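Notes to self, diguanylate cyclase:
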Amino acid sequence: MSQQQDDLTALHWLFDMLQHIDVGLVVINKRYEIELWNGFMENHSGVSSTAARNKSLFSVFPDLNEEWLKQKFDNVLALRTPIYISWEQRPYLFPFKSYRSITGIADKMFQNVVIRPIKNANGTVTHLCVVVYDVTDVATNKAALSAANRKLDQLSKIDGLTELSNRATLDRALDVVYDAYKLHGGGPHSLVMADIDHFKKVNDSYGHQVGDEVLQQFAKILSSASRRGDFVGRFGGEEFGILLPNTDKNGAQVYCEKVRTQLEGMKIATSQGDISITVSLGVCELNDKAMGVKGWLAAADKALYAAKQQGRNRTVVAD
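result:
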């Protein structure tokens, strides 16, 4: 009698543990009917054990992917081996609301799910246990880390002041276009180097804060004049590089004159009042004579220098 009482006590403890463990436990039979529905499932689904018991899992949760999940269940029953479903494969199986205090990243609970066969005393398998783990903390932390890494990667490619691509990113874009040109031909492709005239006077007269405002406004003008697929970057200081794929030198000159005349005819609003500036531009179309990217850059830079020498506020196209 004492042994029987001990067994009943142990059974009671086990049942109490199953009800209060912080893991979802669902036992279903071959007809997918629920025979055990623990406290975790009650609390997160709002469906009591009494209401769920002896009902089809798919009637309790009609939004489940029935065909997909039945195939999983049948495979476990036939093969007698568990199946694991990671949140990275499928964010959740049961659409439970997330109650984690990790601010707005997850509306639903992220879940790892294990479907295990339950062997009877005679070795047969007629029931399955679905184990649901709440991994919202892990998933949201990983998502936040991935977002931060993407942001850092983006920042490493962007000039912080103008929000254009930086010099390193511009160099990579030039390498890609040049390598494709040498391997497959095609084109034409043009490179524009642009430099704000007498920018040092702006800094000396108004201060570097105003100089930064001028650079930011000029960057917006370059971007607004560009097409989808063009590549606009800050080369350094007041110098900018614009890669115009599939554009010959005549098309590049049209682009340059659009930018130059727009800047010439406007006043740039700054914290110290309106300022007038001009820009000089040099153009080089990629050709077989270019000695690599450095040669292409040097030719565009030489055309820019010629524009400066000829009086500034003009576009010069390299021969």
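- The first strand starts at residue 24 and ends at 29.
- The two ends are 106 Å apart (CA to CA).
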